[in-house]
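Lecture 7, part B: from sequences to assemblies.

Below are the input chains for today's worked example.
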Amino acid sequence: DGGITQSPKYLFRKEGQNVTLSCEQNLNHDAMYWYRQDPGQGLRLIYYSQIVNDFQKGDIAEGYSVSREKKESFPLTVTSAQKNPTAFYLCASNKRVGETQYFGPGTRLLVL
Amino acid sequence: GNSVTQMEGPVTLSEEAFLTINCTYTATGYPSLFWYVQYPGEGLQLLLKATKADDKGSNKGFEATYRKETTSFHLEKGSVQVSDSAVYFCALSPQNTGNQFYFGTGTSLTVIP
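Predicted structure of the full complex, as structure tokens:
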């Protein structure tokens, strides 16, 4: 089955620790995205990538980093500089401009 | 700029009631419009979409019509079920401005038996 997978489902971060969220897609999509969702709120764009080895900051990139070394993969690192990382993180992808974005199941990040 | 404004929630309805969730947008040109649904603890799923004015998207009994004259894309369903309880997001994809989507803040719907 084609789709987007995210792992882990739950992730715990200690103070001062960097953590990496995984996002993989087998839809042959060129573009991939990371969003942050806080309780009762909409989605805010963190980073997006339109092609391999290229990515752009979204609205709330501070404290996050990404890489796009393969078409299928777009991992997100939440660095220690992100002081309020507790949220639900969603990865999405689409083939080209204007087309439907497809979402993964999400990763919930909690701070210990 | 581009933005989406959604009806504030939460919305609580009895089973078999009529549902309307309002969505209006601001965009230049002719954006594509989407409704997504999110069940608790899950990602977003595409519910329906429309890519040009007067198009009607429909799926699972839900409908929305792309109205350029009123810049609206209201979601409707004639008879809701308990299983429709979820959060609904309206979104737009602008024309010719890269791949970024713009999402509304979401409307929580609870359907009671």
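Note for the exam: The interface with chain A takes residues 31-32, 34, 36, 41-46, 49, 51, 89, 93, 95-96, 98-101, 103-106, 108 of chain B (CB under 8 Å). Keep this in mind when comparing with the next example.
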